[in-house]
Amino acid sequence: MEESNTLTLKRFIILAVIAVWVVFAMAPLVWLFMSSLKTRLDLFSMPPKFIFKPTLHGYEALFITTYADGTRKVSEIIGTMFNSILIAGMGTILAVALGTMSGYAASRFEFKAKGDFMFFVLSTRMLPAVAVLVSFHIMYARLGLADTRFGMILLYILVNIGLATWIMKGFFDGVPRDLEEVALVNGYSRLWAFRKLVLPMVKGGIAATTGFCFIFAWNEFTFASIITTTRAKTLPVRISAALGKEGLDWAMVAAAGILLIIPIVVLFYLIRKHLLMGMTFGVLGKKE
Amino acid sequence: MAEVTLEGLRKNYGNVAAVKGLDLVIKDQEFVVLLGPSGCGKTTTLRCITGLESPTGGRILFDGKDVTQQKPAERNVAMVFQFFALYPHLKARKIITFPLRARKASKKHIREKVEWVAEMFKLHHLLDRYVGGMPPGDKQKIALARAVVRDPNVLLLDEPLSALDEQYREEMRWQLGHIQKQLKVTTVYVTHDQREAMSLADRIILMRDGRIEQQAPPDEIYRRPANVFAAYFIGSPGMNLFPVTLEDRDLLLGKESRRLPIPEEIISKLAVTERREFVMGIRPEFLSIAGKEAGEGESCFPATIFSTEQVGNYKIFNFRVDDEIYHGMVRRKGVLEGEGMVCFDMAQARFFNKESGEAIF
């Protein structure tokens, strides 16, 4: 009886802590969502209103531009959103694909100056964006990559590949070598063993890496704000620009915030099954 | 089936030399055991033969043909791994046919082979089960079946029994030896367990520090170790190694110079070497206890037996000379601890050069 009491108490404490944490983490999001549905009047009322008549005005302002002569057109934010999805998506997919392969190589093969190489790979991630911004700006201008989606994809591959290589190396280190060696001895190629045996075992790792890389690429602001101007402009840049240009339509800004969150939520919903496994495996799986 | 030749095989990992110039011929159908302490280069040697490691220097020949640059798949070798390396999400049948499917063998051939190998290892009842939940013994059977199913040139085993329970290990050891003789496949077996080596090998290759210390059939390596390392490593417990000094046709034992009466002919043989200091090796089973008084002409000296342990029918007794602990093995009941005479069967003693450790006779 006593034991079950302490158990319930323990459970209760755990749940309470989680509940507090959830409130703490979710409150700003809930606030953001409510704000995106409020009228200007409701937004600034004191005390804050939790019950109000929702309006889609914020979203309308975000997606539809009204000109001085009264004509209404679909806002260029649609194009910006497409840019963001394409650039962050392709940048992530390619960085994870390349990082997976280089992580495998780093885990399995010995080569000259491997330690130095791996440190260099990691150092690409340590560098603050601001430090290399100017050189990138000049380089991109000369190469004709400035304000191109291709250039941005390239940039995000570069920024993410180091992280992807290191995370994936950790996962590959956790896969026993015997499994592929059996295949090699038995007449299969290394590539076959990599694809059919090793890759399925690091699915969780790939999912986790994809998550990390995508968040970074999706949110990235510093590079995008300098290198893109119109054609390749991404959402974070566009939204920050909106702040200045059209005065402070807070409902619209909140709507843009929601828009920015949606793809991340969708991505993590899709990979959630692999994620927990992936995140613990990277830590615990190392022992083997 | 093939004869395997290693010529000056070397393998470095960075600055560390794992194998330092190995010359070895493994005869067709021979069962060879690479034995040695961890880090002696035995597994590296095995992996070089497999082709999973490429040597830093030297050549590997199968039946006189140089395979040094060949990939593992091209060598037609089979390997059994310490932790089985099975795919838990597959059924045993799939795993066993894995090498055959790589070769695009016909369905009929695959069926026949599976039947053959299942019969040999008595694993019909396991074929359609997933290996995930099987006990280690069954897993190892399946790993072995996978290895031999395609008639490899050479069968390579890397500590295949070390992940099994003691009880199952004995059974598998016996079965393994039996199957190797049936298949007549050239076999290289790596282990650090000298009992496995003794019971399985046609020839033991004893390695230390990247080199071969001795290669000989088990019986010979046991009776006539080539050096003090072989003497001590083989046997449980290993050979007793006493520092001895020859003085005026007397043999003195240890620092305290206890005089040990020994036969005249041994004294003569030692005197011929014109050395004074030797290492005398003698296996525990050739030691006995003679109570307070030793008989005339027996090689005994007084010692204090400070502990004993029972091993099956035998009793191991421990005593000290100087600060070293030595062991004897007797088949006797009763209390052995206390003062007594420890006697040597000098016909079984072996003498080593004190500096080089090499055997003299």
Condensed summary:
Chain A is mainly α and 288 residues long. Chain A has 13 helices and two strands, in the order αααββαααααααααα. The longest helix of chain A has 35 residues, at 2-36.
Protein traits:
heterodimer; A: mainly alpha; two-stranded antiparallel ribbon; 13 helices; globular; B: alpha+beta; Rossmann fold; 2 domains; 6-stranded mixed beta sheet; 5-stranded antiparallel beta sheet
Plain-language structure description:
The complex is a heterodimer of chains A (288) and B (361). Chain A has helices at 2-36, 40-44, 57-63, 77-108, 114-126, 129-143, 149-173, 178-185, 190-201, 203-219, 222-227, 235-245, 250-284, and strands at 64-66, 72-74. Chain A has 288 residues and is mainly alpha-helical. Chain A folds into 2 domains: 2-74; 77-287, MetI-like (MetI-like fold). Chain A has a two-stranded antiparallel ribbon. In chain A, helix 7 (149-173) packs antiparallel against helix 10. Chain B is an alpha+beta fold. Chain B folds into 2 domains: 4-233, Rossmann fold; 240-353, OB fold (Dihydrolipoamide Acetyltransferase, E2P). Chain B has helices at 42-50, 72-75, 92-96, 98-102, 107-121, 136-148, 166-183, 194-200, 218-223, 228-233, 264-272, and strands spanning 4-13, 16-26, 31-35, 57-62, 65-66, 77-80, 154-158, 186-191, 203-208, 211-216, 240-247, 250-253, 258-260, 277-282, 287-289, 299-311, 314-321, 324-330, 338-344, 350-353. In chain B, the strands form 4 sheets. In chain B, strands 6-7-8-3-9-10 form a 6-stranded mixed β-sheet, with helices on both faces. Chain B has a 5-stranded antiparallel β-sheet with strand order 13-12-11-14-20. In chain B, strands 15-19-16-17-18 form a 5-stranded antiparallel β-sheet, with no helix packed on it. The mean pLDDT of chain B is 90.
